[in-house]
Design brief:
alpha+beta, Peptide Deformylase, 2 helices, five-stranded antiparallel sheet
């Protein structure tokens, strides 16, 4: 496993559409492991493959609730409901945040790292993270959706110790 370089918002790769993953290969497995390492190292709650420069439809998410990290391959949000508005940030734009409105509940279909088909109903922070990371796969960034100004993030220490 290795820490990969996180691409920043001025880089064109973040604006491209990622390609579907058809088969799991050792190389893709390694990518997923590296994405998890990179996300944890950077203290993020999610990371999408284009953020490490790879245009594949893969995201990893860990909102720090003690659950196993989510690895989603080819995720598709097929139903949403409700609304939530909160601050959002992105590892590709360190130190900034801005207010974004997202659905409060999402239903998502994806494949896991064994390419088994899965479904998940997520709400609140997890729903937000899934929306944010899935957007990355289509070249959409939260700064496109932000309401008002981007602000400097003030990090609060939360003690969701791992
Ligand atoms: Zn992001």
């Amino acid at each position: 496993m290795a820490i990969r370089n996180i691409r920043t918002m001025d880089e064109e790769v973040l604006r491209k559409k990622s390609k579907e993953v058809k088969v799991m290969t050792p190389r893709t497995k390694m990518l997923i492991g590296d994405m998890l390492d990179t996300m944890y190292e950077a203290g993020g709650v999610g990371l999408a493959a284009p953020q490490v420069g790879v245009l594949k439809r893969i995201v990893v998410i860990d909102i720090g609730d003690g659950a196993e990290p989510l690895v989603m391959i080819n995720p598709v949000i097929y139903e949403t409901s409700g609304e939530q508005t909160a601050d959002e940030g992105c590892l590709s734009l360190a130190g900034k945040c801005g207010q974004v409105t997202r659905p409060n509940v999402v239903k998502v279909r994806f494949q896991d790292e064994h390419m088994d088909q899965k479904e998940l109903v997520a709400e609140e922070l997890l729903a937000r993270a899934i929306c944010h990371e899935c957007d990355h796969l289509d070249g959409i960034l939260y700064i496109d959706l932000v309401e008002g100004e981007l602000r400097d993030a003030t990090y609060e220490e939360d003690d969701e110790e791992e």
